[in-house]
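Q: Got a minute? One more chain.
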Amino acid sequence: MTKIWKETGFVTDDPWVVENEETKAGSNEKAILGLDAFIEKASSGDSGLGVLINPADDVTRLQPFIEQVSLVAVAFPAFNDGRAFSHASLLRARLGYAKEIRAVGDVLIDQVPLMLRCGIDSFAVSNETALRRLSEGRLPGIDNHYQPTARPSADAKSYSWRRVS
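A: Always. Here it is, folded:
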């Protein structure tokens, strides 16, 4: 069972549905479309849609439509495929996307703090261990970071490249 988690806790009434051949958004739901389908709809003026970015997709194709995107879902098909981290960072830092970015797919508890640092702010979680740890409020993490990130540091008094959680 997949649940949506944000830093404020689990979301009970999330309207977003990743559309595919078997699943379509209902009347009270919002569609998350694949990149090509999203661009086709956005080109005709549709807005209020979500877009699914798969690992091999070129996220910069969204640039002309960035204001029409209501949610970006970045896909993590396997724990060892980290291209979605780069997609989230590019969306935040280069494309200036300020709305919701959601991690979908193989979301594991160890990766959640790193996903947050890259600008991902909601998570479609189905892993039992991750669900349990998130419900307990137990996020793993490292207090000191030396890489700049899409998420601003709470401690801005130190070097610009050194971050403290």
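A: The chain is about 20% helix and 25% strand.
Q: Perfect, thanks.
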